[in-house]
Design a protein that fits this description.
There is one protein chain. By secondary structure, this protein is α/β, with parallel strands linked by helices. It is built from ten helices and five strands, in the order E-E-H-H-H-E-H-H-H-E-H-H-H-E-H. Strand 1 and strand 2 form a beta hairpin. Helix 5 runs parallel beside helix 8. The radius of gyration is 18 Å and the shape is globular.
Amino acid sequence: MEMLILPVHQTVVLETPKTGSLALRAMLAPYTVPQSDKAPRHIGHDAFRRNFAPDLVMGFGRLPQTVAVVRAPLERMQSWYRYRRRPQLKGLPASTLGVSFEGFMLAYLEGGRPEMANVGRQDRFVGWDGVHARVDHLFDYAQLSLLEQFFSALTGDALTLPERNKTPKRVRADYTISAEVLERFTTDNSAELAMYGAVAAAGHLMRPGSGAKFSSWAH
């Protein structure tokens, strides 16, 4: 699948993994076109600006606004762990079957990142500098009604997110971890947690200057 681009609305969605991006893609399908088969789905802001934004600027005459969804970091780790417990991954390097959640978290924290614990950081994905992200519009996965409102205003249509790519309920997981591992995760991922805290507090966190750009396209 290619990068998610809304050409008429000069908007690019940067699809953060494990934040409902397939549902968002389905909701926006009538408004999107692919850039090319060389533009992958899960590309972060810096790689987007470096490798793909110049072509879009040539086509649009300006840099498109960017949108991304972020999720509570520990909840996102739980989602990855459960997703990788699916029976079809059994025996593959990406599988977490037979691995406790604590073992999964330790594999993530110890830095070698075996395939089953290969999870990227959201603060890096959105270009978080400790105060602001480089993405224009960040939405909280726990408050997706704000994302629906944003795209409804942008497109002029009433939009709702469908359910897509849910891990089957039969895939069960125990998320028990020790206080020590949780503290280590909190310390090592402090920037990601701070970024998510800012987005969760706002619901829709806008980069300074991006609000006027959105307003001009929404009306």
